[in-house]
Design a protein that fits this description.
The chain has 318 residues and is an alpha/beta fold. The chain is built from 13 helices and ten strands. It is globular, with a radius of gyration of 24 Å.
Length: 318
């Protein structure tokens, strides 16, 4: 390259840099972002997925939504902590273990009391008619799920301790089969599995009313929240809309969403009616209630060391 060519090239690069600094360069193409959402066959997120509005609202921000289904909470939060998803929702217990595993774990919002949406079930023709009758029996539960803590509280209601029963840690699909073939005597579970089991003839010894709150938490990673608050604000707006809709028109919502989410309409409607809706930021009071759950698991030696739930509360600011 001649000295003239080098000088010309240098001037061209300088001009391009100067033009870029003053906005005269060709507009840059915004890099597409991916929003990876974990969901279960329960709660508001599966309803939002079925409605399909989140994709439409995030598209102008250059955001593509990717959905990932999980059978229950703990595996979903393992994926969140591993960086495989960005956003998730579970009941009360899974976040306790997830926070222990990651300092970046974050609570970002919650839905209110859904205590009616989990139950301790037996077969319809089971001779067991009281919680006390479970002493020495085998109870299935998904380890670390919201129904794990509910089981602890339900046993207390019946005058039993956690060690008074044999606990079989099973995922929902396996637990349902175990209850049906009578390899377990009872099953602690949440909707829509609860509603589906009822439809198949199972009987509830108790639900969660008066025992647990069963809040539904919306969860993320502190680093994701810091960089993508705009995505979360749009997501919350759409969640509120779909929650308002299902509250006002549960039968219509169940009929419309049933084929999309893969749950029969009568079962989905029952689950919707037992679900608490009304998205809110997580308060100190809610964090204190979560702390009680963490302390209970610590006492039972299900949690290896203490955690401070308040450390994981993150506010999504404008």
């Amino acid at each position: 390259m001649t000295s003239f060519t080098r000088r010309a090239a240098g001037k061209t690069l300088a001009a391009l840099a100067l033009a870029g600094a003053f906005g005269a360069a060709a507009p840059a193409v915004a890099q597409e972002r991916e929003f990876r959402v974990g969901y279960q066959k329960s709660g508001a997120l599966i309803l939002l997925k079925g409605k399909g509005t989140l994709e439409e609202k995030l598209k102008p921000l250059g955001v593509r939504v990717k959905w990932a289904e999980f059978q229950f909470g703990p595996p979903m939060l393992e994926a969140l902590n591993a960086g495989a998803i960005d956003f998730a929702t579970t009941g009360e217990s899974p976040p306790i273990f997830a926070q222990l595993a990651s300092p970046n774990f974050a609570y970002v919002a919650y839905d209110p009391d859904s205590s009616k949406s989990e139950a301790l079930l037996v077969q319809g023709d089971s001779p067991i008619t009281t919680i006390a009758g479970l002493k020495g029996k085998t109870v299935a539960v998904a380890k670390g799920s919201n129904s794990h803590y509910f089981l602890v509280k339900a046993l207390e209601k019946g005058g039993l301790s956690y060690s008074d029963v044999k606990v079989a840690y099973l995922a929902p699909a396996d637990a349902r089969a175990a209850l049906q073939n009578r390899s377990v005597d009872a099953w602690s579970v949440w909707d829509p599995y609860y509603a589906a089991a009822e439809a198949a003839g199972a009987r509830a010894l108790t639900d969660g009313q008066g025992l647990v709150r069963n809040y539904q938490f919306f969860l993320s990673d502190k680093r994701f929240v810091e960089k993508n608050a705009d995505i979360l604000r749009v997501t919350f707006e759409e969640l509120k809309k779909v929650e308002d809709w299902v509250l006002k028109e549960p039968k219509t919502a169940a009929a419309e969403l049933a084929p999309i989410v893969g749950i029969p309409a009568p079962i989905l409607e029952k689950a919707i009616l037992r679900q608490g809706f009304g998205l809110k930021p997580v308060t100190k009071e809610i964090a204190a209630e979560q702390q009680k759950i963490a302390d209970t698991f610590l006492e039972l030696k299900l949690l290896p060391k203490p955690i401070n739930v308040a450390d994981a509360i993150v506010e999504v600011t404008p």
